[in-house]
Amino acid sequence: MNRRKAPGLSSLSASAAAMMNWVQRVIPDQLKRATRSLRGRVAAYLLLAALLPVGVLVVSGALIQPALIRSGVESNLVDLSEAGSRLILQQLEEAQAQIQVMAVDPIVASTARSRAEKQARLDALKGFYPIFDDITLLGTSGGVLASTTYQYYWTGWQGNRWYREAL
User: Fold this and answer.
1) In a domain, 149, yes or no
2) Is the model's pTM score more than 0.85?
3) 161 DSSP 8-state letter
4) Both ends of the chain: CA-CA distance in Å?
5) Which DSSP string do the residues of 90-113 spell out, in sequence order?
């Protein structure tokens, strides 16, 4: 059986073949270009997405962090100074309380006791209160009656304003 081709079919198949040829040749090039541009876009996006946080970190490190560190250091210094002042105040209050206890001691406050007894009592009190380097007992005339550490040869305490105010 002899088959005959329809007259328009061979030209159609030649056109279809040419079209397929063109599609196979042109479309992959366009797809490659589209892929490249898509890759380029994705690469640019990823580069921007990676560089933006790095830029923010650099700006933050250069501009914001020193100010934050400075304020943190200032805050720490304020806290430390407040703690130090509280400790100093506590030491002064304890010393004042210890001085008040020593001032009402019957041997130290007595006018009838001898200097040797007062000296022995002051030496004992100094052992109880090691915060004091020296405990000195002054008379109302400004003279030194007893001292635990130093020997005072100058007796002009009555000329000091604080001494007069204390009397």
Assistant:
1) yes
2) no
3) H
4) 149
5) HHHHHHHHHHHHHHT-HHHH-SSS
